[in-house]
Amino acid sequence: MIAFLLWLLATLDAGFTGYREAAGRNALINKRLYYRRAMIKGALFGQIAVGIAAVVILTSLTVTPDRQSLLRDYDQAGARMLIFYLPYAAVILVAFLVRWIPSVDIRSITSTTIFGPLTLIRPLVAVVGLVYGVLAAPRVATIVVGLIVLTMMLGLEKVLSLFRTASRYRHIPPRS
User: Fold this and answer.
1) What's the pTM value of the predicted model, to 2 decimals?
2) Which sequence spans correspond to the domains of the chain?
3) CA 159/CA 172 separation, integer angstroms
């Protein structure tokens, strides 16, 4: 259950990262489809990160002499991470639900009072959640997996931005 919740939160976070990366880059009045595509792209890129993390975890479980102990440590670390990550994600989800109300004023208020500050503290929440989780099972494997996941989590927005830039220039014909 813990692994499933962490996967779900990683997928949601990646989708929200896609939304954040796309925000302010389109002059359309009705941006619903634009943001939906950005969130799907973010979530798909997030699955690549989840896949990399899964390979690292499975590799560590393969090479360790005590798989059950390592699996228990991953579970303990993940459970403690959820203490920080679940409330943060819940606030973001509620804010997105409020944005379904067809009011420009409500959307503006959620952007400035919820999304802005939570975007600002997102790296701190990610680091604190990781540290708190790893302290439950401080061994090399949990620290390495945690740092790999943290790096991918915090680097996803830059990757999406680079992908957007590269795809934009792909459509420009070369000069003759």
Assistant:
1) 0.84
2) 2-170
3) 21
